[in-house]
Predict the 3D structure of the following.
Amino acid sequence: MVGRKGFWSLRIDNSLADSVLVFLGDLGKLPHREQLYWKSHNIFPQGGMSSTGFRRSFLGQWVDPEKPDLFFKVRLADFAGKWRSRYGWDLFLPLSESDSHYMECLHIPTTANNAKEFDEQLLAIVKITIDSLNQNKLAEGCTSLKKEAKSIDKLEIFLKCKGYDLEEMIQFLRNVQLLRSTTVAHRRSRCENVKLNEYFKFRAKDLKSVFEDIIIKMIWVFNTLEHLLIYDDPATRNVKAEQSTPEDV
């Protein structure tokens, strides 16, 4: 749903890869000025509705979005609520009002190799997840933490205190953090990092695909933590992250 509060609203199918779909009848209810704006962006129909849009609009079903960026937002909210119920505190601290735009504007880049858009979305995903880790709660009772320990270090120690060695997941988070630090935070001439290029497959994929992979792996992080720490089963302890992979998302 998009709209201008108090003036108009419009249902959209935003689960398509390269466009949004709206019903002609709904467009007819908009103010004339808005109709002209939407008309200027009209394209010839290509392929019909998404499965999510059809099931919601015609079957009246409550279904999760298909696109990874939209599903990420739904999955994060669901995970956050379950974690809070289980532990009584937030693993990912809610964004402040001044930072809320990072969540609102989070999306998979619209073009294949727009470096500016990639940097903006990379910064957003890190702000929402890694930078928002609840460091104080993660560090409670962990006497082995060093003074210089950062948020991911604290998460790693917390997991080990719970009996889990999730090396692959921790490495992914470190690489995303490093990618942000060597691209968004610095000049690109200083960002040549062979290990990061190999890890994220920059030479084989465009920036849009790289970011989509990051979104999917972040969902995998939520799934892994939920499975092991919210539905905590002692029989599954001391497992390696390889038993759960991003392909399982």
Observations:
- Confidence is low (pLDDT under 50) at residues 239-243.
- Residues 207-230 form the longest helix (24 residues).
- DSSP finds eleven helices and two strands in the chain.
